[in-house]
Design goal:
Layout (H helix, E strand, L loop, with lengths): L1 H8 L5 H12 L4 E5 L2 H15 L4 E3 L2 H4 L12 E6 L5 H12 L3 E6 L5 H5 L2 E4 L15 H21 L3 H7 L3 H8 L2 H4 L7 E3 L4 H10 L3 E5 L5 E6 H10 L25 H11 L3 E5 L5 E6 H6 L4
Parallel strand pairs: 1-2, 1-3, 3-4, 4-5, 6-7
Antiparallel strand pairs: 7-8, 9-10
Helix pairs in contact: 1-7, 2-7, 3-7, 8-9
Length: 306
């Protein structure tokens, strides 16, 4: 039932949703998110998601607001008000104050025709056919729908603001997420005594570095520009089809257009390249194609990039 409730939201994303996005983008203040009961709990999460994705937001408890917390409200704010029924008594006093302050309002409600829906400048329809509760009483489908609509709003704003990975890193400096967002390839890569061979080297010369240097050797020209990559897998396949392989040049066996990484690339992005293409290591090159290092999947995993 909850899955169906969320799926039904898609057809309701239209002019009202777009208007709500524009209202928040144009606001000079913050987004004030308010709701009571389970709607309040969902509101707190939406406020936290907005804040962490580039849209400053604060949760304002409708009752506490009338006992002093209204001091945080400014004329440049936008209010995001959550109520399944749209008739919550606790919201009424807050709505009246917001109206006097000329604060623009957006309603997330299950009843667009409700008092809250009629008052709000923009209405995001979060109505559901039935709660997942067997008695159709406990907020379940309705809170899931409201949460999904709030997430959709946050992501639309994130995209409009161009809020990228570097911005995430700035506001998420702690924990595993912070490590993933801050860690760069240059922080993890091997940068000295790199396993390299010239293109005219033979496979005999490649055997030892392949065995001793984790199964990947970079092939470079005299100026250090990457020409290709040779792996233990390449050697194994060559041995299966060629009895006399020692004198074959590595240039005939190497991958000429290997996947690469850049020094300032996010380490997590390098992991993604490895996973998509089934490789265990990437040569790291600069803008001129010169080899600067070698980054291995195991090192990235140990550093917390996965």
């Amino acid at each position: 039932m909850e899955a169906e409730a969320v799926a039904a939201l898609e057809s309701r994303i239209g002019e009202q949703f777009a208007g709500a996005v524009e209202a928040i983008l144009n606001a000079t203040g913050r987004v004030l998110v308010a709701g009571i009961g389970k709607s309040g709990i969902i509101g707190r999460k939406i406020a936290a998601t907005l804040t962490s994705t580039g849209t400053p937001a604060s949760f304002l408890h409708p009752v506490e607001a009338l006992h002093g917390d209204l001091g945080i409200v400014g004329p440049g704010d936008v209010a995001l008000l959550l109520s399944k029924s749209g008739e919550s008594e606790e919201l009424r006093g807050l709505v009246e104050f917001l109206t006097r302050m000329d604060v623009r309002t957006i309603a997330l409600t299950g009843r667009p025709e409700s008092a809250l829906g009629r008052h709000a400048e923009y209405v995001l329809d979060c109505s559901v056919d039935e709660e997942a509760c067997p008695h159709d009483l406990a907020p379940t489908s309705s809170t899931t729908a409201a949460l999904a609509m709030g997430d959709a709003l946050a992501v639309a704003l994130l995209l409009r603001r161009g809020f990228g990975r570097d911005d995430f890193a700035r506001v998420h400096p702690g924990g595993a997420l912070g490590r993933r967002l801050l860690l760069r390839v240059q922080d993890v890569m091997e940068a000295s005594d790199l396993p390299v061979l010239p293109a005219d080297a033979t496979m005999r010369q490649a055997i030892v570095p392949l065995a001793e240097r984790r199964g990947t050797v970079a092939i470079v020209d005299a100026e250090g520009r990457l020409q290709g990559v040779l792996t233990s897998g390449d050697l194994t396949r060559l041995m299966e089809r060629e009895e006399h392989f020692f004198t074959i040049a590595v240039s005939e066996v190497m991958t000429r257009t290997p996947r690469t990484a850049e020094p300032d690339q996010l380490a997590a992005a390098a992991v993604g390249v490895m996973e998509r293409h089934g490789v265990m290591a990437l040569p790291v090159v600069d803008g001129d194609g010169r080899l600067r290092g070698m980054v291995h999947l195991h090192d990235l995993m140990r550093a917390g990039a996965v």
